[in-house]
Structures are given as structure tokens and as C-alpha cells.
Amino acid sequence: MKALYPGSFDPITNGHLDVIKRITPIFGEVIIAVLNNNEKSNTIPLKDRLELIKESTKGMKNISVESFTGLTVVYAKSRNANVIVRGLRAPSDFEYELEMSQINYFLSNGLETLFIMTNPAYSFIRSSRVKEVIELGGDVKELVPTPVYKYLYEKIDLKK
Ligand code: PNS
């Protein structure tokens, strides 16, 4: 089975990484699909988001890191993915994810979305919060993979 794990990954966090580690043995093959939406709402350029995921997943087998534009389900079909996977952190995620999985099912004529519950140790982490913490002078060392930590502090001035 091939699973597509789509997202913005702006940047990848330890929560995302935990999902990737847990779903790979279940599905056998996982495509991490990064949405390329012309950088409109992202802090980190697509090229760097891809590179950070690659560095953060180095040594992990049976995963690929790719970018896509347009509808997730169209990309999933083009890559012969059998299923879309999303992580659920808290009940507040549910409403958005429910709608998204239903529109995706409708648009694709039946591609299923399966959900994995986030490890409670990571359930409060979201990419936007990580960036906010850095902006306000806090430390996110334990919330993101080491390459992301280095990148955020060295390369990006989030205050701009
Ligand atoms: O990490 P995110 O930002 O929660 O990921 C959201 C993502 C990329 C999975 C979602 O925005 C998406 O699938 N976008 C592509 C466009 C699409 O297929 N939308 C659903 C039907 S309108």
C-alpha cells in the first residue's frame, strides 16, 4: 500500500515526524507531499521546506518527499497512492479534517483519508506556533527536528 501524507510543512515539526515514523510500517510506502501554493501563505520557501523534510527523515526507508500543486486527490491518483493520511492532534482539528476528507472522497470518487492520532507528547505543536515562539524569543528545540531548529534560528528572520 502507498500512502500520501500531504501538508504545508512550514516547517516540518516533531509531530509530523512522529506521524511519518508510525505510518511507514503500516503502509509500506509513504509519499510526503508538500503543497506548493506559490509561497502565498508560507514563511519558508518550498525548496527549503522540501530540503528540511529530507534532512529530518534521513535514513528512514520507504519514504519520498515531493511537492505538488492543485488538488491533493489529483496528485494522489497521479502517484497511484491508495490512501491519504492526516494526523489529528485534538478535537479542534476534526471539523476541518472531516470536511476535507469528505470533499476529497467526493472529488476522487472514493479515495479514502485515514487519520492517525498524534502522540500526546506532540499534540500541542503546530508549525505556526513554532514560528510564533521563535519570534517572541522562546526556544523550540524540543518541538522540531534538529535541521529545522538550526534553519529557523540561522537562516530566517521571522520578525521581518
Ligand atoms: O499542513 P496543512 O496546511 O494542514 O495541509 C493542508 C493541505 C495541504 C493538506 C490542504 O490544504 C490541501 O490538500 N490543499 C490542496 C488543495 C486541495 O486539494 N484542497 C481540498 C479540496 S478543495
Give structural attributes:
alpha/beta; Rossmann fold; binds 4'-phosphopantetheine
Element-level helix/strand string:
EHEHEHEHEHH
- As a percent range, the share of helical residues equals 40-55%
Tally of helical segments:
6
Present as ligands are:
4'-phosphopantetheine
How far the N terminus sits from the C terminus, by CA atoms, comes to 43 Å
Alpha-beta classification = alpha/beta
Instruction: Give the overall shape.
Output: globular
Text of the CATH class? Alpha Beta
Looking at the structure, the CATH topology is: Rossmann fold
What characterizes the major β-sheet? 5 strands, parallel
Write the CATH homologous superfamily: HUPs
Q: How many E-type strands?
A: 5
Rg value: 15 Å
Q: In the CATH classification, which architecture applies? A: 3-Layer(aba) Sandwich
Strand residues, percent: 15-25%
Which strands sit side by side, in order, in the main sheet?
3-2-1-4-5
Return the average pLDDT rounded to an integer: 94
Number of domains: 1
Can you put this structure into words, describing what you see?
The chain is of the alpha/beta class. It has a single domain (2-123), classed as Rossmann fold. The chain has six helices and five strands, in the order E-H-E-H-E-H-E-H-E-H-H. It has a five-stranded parallel sheet, with helices on both faces. The radius of gyration is 15 Å and the shape is globular. The termini are far apart. 29% of the residues are buried. The model has no long low-confidence stretch (mean pLDDT 94). 4'-phosphopantetheine is lined by residues 6-8, 35, 71-72, 100, 103. 4'-phosphopantetheine (PNS) binds next to strand 1 and helix 4.
